[in-house]
Amino acid sequence: MAQDELLGLLGRRREGDGVKANDRRLNVRKTYKMFVGGAFVRSESGRSYPVHSPDGELLARASAGSRKDVRDAVRSARGAQPGWAARSAYNRGQILYRVAEVMDSRRSEVAEEVARAVGGHAAVSEVDAAVDRWVWYAGWCDKFPQVLGGANPVAGDYFNFTVPEPVGVVGIAAPENSPLLGLVSRLAPALVSGNAAVVLSSECFPLPSVTLAEILATGDVPPGVVNVLTGRRPAMLAALAGHGEVDCLDLTGCEQTPQSGDGPEPLVEAESLAAKSVTRVVKATTAQRLWFEPSSESPYLIGEFCEYKTVWHPKGR
Amino acid sequence: MTRIAPTSPQAPAQPKEAPAQPPAAETGAPRLPAPAPGAGAQLEFGPHSYAPAPEATDLVEIAPSYGLFIDGEFVAPRSDQTITTLNPATARPLSVVPQSGPEDVDLAVAAAGKAAVSWGRAPGKVRARYLYRIARLLQERSREFAVLETLDNGKPVKESRDVDIPLAAAHFFHHAGWADKLEYAFAGAVARPVGPVGQVIPWNFPLLMAAWKLAPALAAGNTVVLKPAETTPLSALALADVLQEADLPPGVVNIITGNGITGDALVRHQGVRKVAFTGSTVVGKSIGSALAGSGKRLTLELGGKAANIVFEDAALDQVTEGIVNGIYFNQGQVCCAGSRLLVQESVAETVVAKLRRRLDTLRVGDPLDKNTDIGAVNSAAQLSKIAELVNSGVDEGAEIYQPACDLPDIGYFFRPTLFCGVSQSHRIAREEIFGPVLSVLTFRTPDEAVEKANNTAYGLSAGIWTEKGSRILWMAERMKAGVVWANTFNRFDPASPFGGYRESGYGREGGRQGMLSYVELEPAGPAGAAPAGATA
Question: Model's pTM, two decimal places?
């Protein structure tokens, strides 16, 4: 930020002039690391990349995640998922509500970060919408099976019911242009049923996703349930899509733009890799990508990250 | 139109008086030990003698050749290539159908595209009427369809008569009722059709799979191009006759025949907005790759290697029947077949002894005979695949048991087969055989049963046999499978969603969850769509 640079210049000048250094405060810059298995880690590759604002201003450096980071993240998600799914629906609901609480308490900070990333207008309302979205999905945890599943009236003397279950590990390519609200709109419904997630952050605007990770860590989301990777998307996406332990892939973030003739390579590659292990691919519909609208939230979206299990048992004396 | 001559009745399997001998000469496998003593009282299944009881075939008319059903009419194909469909019980030709080429696919998809607007906008009540009509017509012509299905597929007529055809009619009847109730199916959302659908179905339940595909698609307002399997096109073409009789508007359903090349052209066609496929996992993966980046919706119902898990407290005579139903139903050519028997160690010997006795009484032979339990395998290719995997089981050291029944001299028949001493690494425990071949493995604890049951890339179905209710629910929760049958197996119903986890595919067929595959859910508008009593 310009202010940072100004302070930096002031600091150097003051040193040179022999002015007391604690006259003006030199701010402590945040180091943006990735979030894997409940810990904030740098990429095993040792690489990072500069993140700029839309104005071209350097905001910070973010970790450049590698294929191995993807594998680590999937492993930690796989390990955490059964425990998350085994928690009571009431407990999961409380934890997701706690995420809303923590995000709300850091509202202005998150808004400032969103503003720096994608521009000032609507940043506060974006954070507010994200908080609302956590609250809305938190309340679904102990309700969606009643809406999506049910008892089935089959012929013969059988009791038959269908329950939605978490599909397992969900890989999420976060929406590129809505680094906070877009991500929350895809992540929250995946978590409701008990999935664990590996998130590939927006490549251009990754910083809010790292702050979101801090909020998740401060809330009571168990380690490994959400993993956030930053960096160049194509290589990480290929590793994620081709990973046999990923059960569902949300490719909303690499939705092809119909206008561009040459664009959709990463999407095609990711979908081809997913097909090799019959991994389900989901994408937000046009209405669901209106992130500020209620149309982007739906219990059926929770269902897209679920498997339906049907159980039969005969009746008898 | 020519009438088909009744197939010559096969000699029924001889009643077994002497203990059956495994055909050691064929397989070279060591013989199993005699049934365990102290197995307790046993059900008696025979010996009985059966006179041949062949179903009449004169109510079925099979044309010497067929065209394609496009835009409401049977039309001559543009392609000059053809496929001969055989009766697998005799290996003799039944008829000749077109091997549809790209031009034929174009015409069929164009017809579906043209019909999409009016069918999608037709009131649900109107669509429902057509589906009810189709259901009723199938019921009226059920015997004809049963015989036709058995002739083309090789399955025992008692199965086509009692399972395939009634269930197919039930699917149309059930989904007819969804057509005018979609606004209640998905609260808060408006369900719109997806667009023209390309559907590719397998040969194991030809008419039933056509019904599973067509009924929900049509109920939701989609138009369809359906491709039946290469070896079993006849019941789908007969269904086209039913659709005409029901006055279904032209182009709403188009049926094109052909092999995998035709299927590939169909799923890749630009005019198709959604693809539904039931078949092998290998083909499912290739369809997934073909559709990458296309934006088309896709549902897959693929292979399976289901565990059928027997605990020591289960009712073992019922279990035996359930296992037999689970793996020998439809010659084992069932994607959800219970092909891995996981039996608790303490009762393994007893269960295997009961199974062997039951296998000896299974009647293998003429599928048209109403007493036949096991008919013909669908094709020579499938027969050789089964034989190849069975040989691998013998080579890898599993103990084979086959009853010494006589097989017909002609046609594609395979003895019901039981393998003991199977380890999880054996091919017969890992690969889908799609034949009447059961692999028996054992376990000691429920945890071990869960681990072994889920130790597969597939996840379509599972069976649990125990008298303990809490254990059923505990096990059912842990099965990575879309359908769990507890103290039963191979039950199907139009109201019951069916489909797999993992490499068994995604999407469900049947019930409200099945309708999800054929609708686009749009948010209900703020006005008008709010539930009664709610404020905007």
Answer: 0.90
